[in-house]
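Here we describe the complex-level prediction in full. Unlike the single-chain runs in Section 2.1, the two entities below were treated as one system.
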Amino acid sequence: MVRVTLLGLALATAASFSGEAAVQSAPQAAVTGGTLVYLEAQPHTNLYPPAGGFYPNGGIINQLADRLTYQNPKTLKIEPWIAESWTVNPAETEYTFKIRKGVSFSDGTPLDAAAVAKNYDTYGSGNTALRQPPSEVINNYLRSEVIDSHTVKFVFSKPSPGFLQGTSVIGSALVSPGTLAHNFDELGKATAIIGSGPFVATSEVLGKQLVFTARKDYDWGPPGFAHHGRAYIDAIKLIVAPEDSVRIGALLAGQADIIRQVQAYDEKQVRDQGYVIYAPPTRGVNNSVVFRPDNPLVADIRVRQALLHATDTQEIVQTLYSPNYPRATSILASTAAGYVNLSAKLTFDIAKANALLDSAGWKIGADGLRQKDGKELTLSIYPSLPQPQNRAMLELISQQWAKVGVRLNVMTGDAGSHMVDDLDPLKTPVAPAMVGRADPDVLKSEFYPLNRDSLRQKGGGSTKIQSFVDDKLNALLVAIASEPDENKRLSLVGQVQNYVIDQAYAIPTFEEPQAFAAAPYLKQIEFEAVGRPSFYNTWIAKH
Amino acid sequence: MVLWAAFTIAFILLQALPGDALLIKFQNPDLGLSPRQIADIRAAYGADQAMWVQYVHAVGRALTGQFGYSVVSGVPVTEELAANFVPTLALTGFGFLTAVLVAIGITSLSLLTPFSGLRSLACSLPALFISIPTFWLGIEMIQVFSFHFRLVPVIGAEGWKGLILPVLTLAIPISAPLSQVLVRSIDDVQTQPFVAVARAKGASRFWVLSRHVLRNALPPTLTIAGVLFGELLGGAVITETVFGLNGIGRLIQEAVNNQDAAVLQAIVVISAVGFVIINMVVDLLYPLLDPRLLNHAGAAR
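The structure predicted for the assembly as a whole is:
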């Protein structure tokens, strides 16, 4: 039953599986046992749970730790998990959770109200003495109150409707109080992260390999699951294989069972051999190009609108990606709550783009580039490394914009220069953007000056801003994060989507999935709401 | 002195680069931190202090043997080094050994074979080997031997099995300059009068080559080998990336990308020590191979 991973020559030929890709429709009983070999593209970094936004980190923390609530990826509803039930006051400034009894961390510490309070105090306010930063998803946090051993209350300074969903994300994973007693700098080893999850990190070779073992006494998965008790598989062996062709080849040669990060151009090869592509959506702000209007070149709304209409997202999706990467029809993914279809405003229209640029005073010069007052309309952008084929996409956009006389330089530079330049709109008038989170708060995360500040407003993260600030947008974003009424909140989400596109602050391109490829004998691979894998329900069929 | 200079220059260069590890780590959108939160974290790390204060702290830590923590990966630098140093030594050690064997093989083939066709083939091998890109070679090795013929696993391979393909990938390109230098210096030595004398005395071709020519031809090759080995330690980065191996090369690349000062400082110090030691070993080996140097030292006593 245990998977043999070190295939010798003889075994390899015996294990040839090319002929058995036929789909079996009869439901099979789940099998317990076996080791899953999972190939990652990048090594994880610091595993402090709020750093779980980085996909390699999220994929690890998701196996090790549970959360208060479970967001059903199909309905996006929040369901009980470690919290059996909860109550919220009408103003949405106080949340009270009843904690399930009998849950323990893998170091034996009970997961009780005090442990939950310790976690949220850290994630809500940060712990500067231990260099632990606060979590992006918990806003307006004031304090926790331990009411009894299994009841905990959180108090907020303002209405915080996004908090409930915030308790379900990987960044709010519950870890043992002992783990949080470590300095931030010591949380980079998976074996140091003690959670209550279905797996425990038992051994690690830094940067290369991580072994998870199933916890035999685990019995507190989300109550909504059909499966209770321990995980089906005995162990997960996570191996880092940075080279794309090596991951794919290893999967197809039977050296691995599931791999993360499959490029769109490799999908066909995988499917042709009877393997399965999984492309769970990330349900947040789509892959976009955003403008920094503080730069005079893009301060004029007509210039931004022109570039929006000069961008052919259909061509981008068709040339570079696959049907798993749907064309964006708003700044939010179509799978996100509160999404509105704005495709009528996102048309590809060269004539309109040219007319807008003409009316803004940018005339085509002798070299085919638009000029105004002796200046050329030349913009620069740094590609984002985590986004799939971002450089190729930006280069394609650069070709598209060249057709209306605008030059887009796709830059190359070290991470330090990138970060420094990224704070200065004069150097980076345009930038790639994308956030995965299945709650309307994601809009505030992306655009609000005190969060990611992707438009670079005055009073935000950069000291280089002369004057740009959009009070109307900011007021709408704050309202989303503090509107207790769900319907009113979703209507605000619609207003922000319309406003950002009307102002042409962003050009959404496509909805980013997380692409995985897995062997056909791997059953019930599941993904949380923004596409990190969960192997709790996964089992390995006979093959 | 050399170590202090290396340490200080590395510190100054790292400071001169735009941005720093904290900015790269905490400004990163994955954390989604607000500007004030980032400022708090920078203060907690002491990154808001004057540069000379930071330098004094860094020297103090280095002198007491504390290498600190990697900001990026959140583990002690010593553990990062431990996890990467041994695999690099194994890879480069065996890679170098294999390269030497291949170089000697090519050289003897080109000198001893009676078939002229084979000889010219052997002579053209170095030029071929040196122009193969390591990246391509590694991927082809994996595709052919691991995925197609399934002779050795790449994923999760333990011990020597996991080393075969990477070692070959590393060895083939560096065997080329070695054999070129060896062939060239053997040619040079063969024209020397004492070779003709030895042959005239009736020594066999093989005897002359191994006893007289090779001993005289080795020192220049050894010098090149010493330099190559030093480069290898850092230069194995492509092989490491393709095969997903741990190693100092990959560690350096990551650390440079993220300006992970603590890791880089430690590597600079260790590399300085390593280069000093390797050069010393090469210098000490000379007299063993070249009796003239030994006699000279004896005569001067």
